[in-house]
Amino acid sequence: MTYVLTSLTALLHPLKKKLKRHTRPVTGQNGHNTLVALTRSRKALLLENAFLRQQVAILERQVSRPKITRRDRLKLLFLARLLPSWKSLLQIVQPETLLRWHSDLFKTFWMKKSGTKNHPRRISGEL
Question: What is the pTM of this model?
Answer without folding.
Answer: 0.45
